[in-house]
């Protein structure tokens, strides 16, 4: 079992930056890909970014490319999402997710992730 806890959300003006963190506990943080998803009010959850276990492969949603960067530090059991040039449309609850052990490849599909955090709110004002 893996427990994921997100932090770093908050209120920021358009054009500003935030750095989200997701700390994993419960078992060795290795051999599985991680991802960030978000859900805005009245909308379905959507994929934001994903990173393979080796960090060689990353994938981003078109809407966030060049503005958001995903990274991970396996020595700290933590995955990060650096968000720059934020826009009001980035406002959402952001969730980190982990695939099952051995699933090292990145996926953009929520159903491929077995463990989820509780989410952290990001609000971007115009």
Q: What pattern of helices and strands is seen along the backbone?
A: EEEEEEEEEEE
Give the N-terminus to C-terminus distance in angstroms: 40 Å
User: Which structural class should the secondary elements be placed in?
Assistant: mainly beta
Which geometry do the CA atoms define? globular
Q: How many beta-strand runs?
A: 11
Mean pLDDT: 93
The largest sheet, given as strand count, sense and whether it forms a barrel, is: 7 strands, mixed
Poorly predicted runs: none
Number of helices: 0
CA radius of gyration: 13 Å
Strand content: over 45%
Portion in helices: under 10%
Oligomer: single chain
Written overview of the protein:
With 126 residues, the chain is mainly beta. It has strands at 3-7, 10-13, 18-25, 34-39, 46-51, 58-60, 68-73, 78-83, 92-98, 115-116, 120-125. Strand 5 (46-51) and strand 6 form a beta hairpin. The N and C termini lie far apart (40 Å). The mean pLDDT is 93.
